[in-house]
Amino acid sequence: MTDINEAKVQLIMELRRQGISDLSVLNATERVPRELFVPDRLRKHAYDNRALPIPLGQSISQPYVVAYMTQALKLNDRHKVLEIGTGSGYQAAILAKLCRRVYTIERHIDLLREAAKRFKLLDLHTIVIRHGDGSEGWIEHAPFDRILVTAAATNLPLNLAEQLGEGGIMLVPVGPEGGAQSIVRVSRAKDRFTTTEMLSVRFVPLVGPPKSEFS
To answer: Domain 64-201 is in which class?
Structure first.
């Protein structure tokens, strides 16, 4: 455990050097045990600043990318956030430390069940989960203050942007699978959307409907 704590301290220092300056984001990163979100065989690498594989061909994002995207959302404790792509649940756990409520959607039932167990273990009761097609968003709970997409869309998903509230922000990786991708920030002012290209990244693709229902 001492080695994990030392690795966590080193990671926080590295994130600071890479430009993560929001103390609330750094604090959330320190408080969420990333070792619980990676496969057992990779726990010794939990605080390496790199993406790690998880089941079903998915991955847990590099801590820097998680922190960068979280910081760029400019969250406060009144915000309602939609996350597309629960994955291991790590990003949702970080978000839950910083906002009022997180709605997260995952198409892989096995991943969602494991994430739900982690949320319960960590007493993250402000996270609401759904098994379904994240590309459609969650219209029943819209509008959202923030939307975070953790899979790469081929084109900017305007249907998701339309679920933003006034002054809302969406972050979404855009680009082809295996090709050049960039995080795009979408800001909403009334019915006008402004886009800004940000960090170059590599994410798994955003895909369509799931094969079964969550139960």
So the answer is: alpha beta
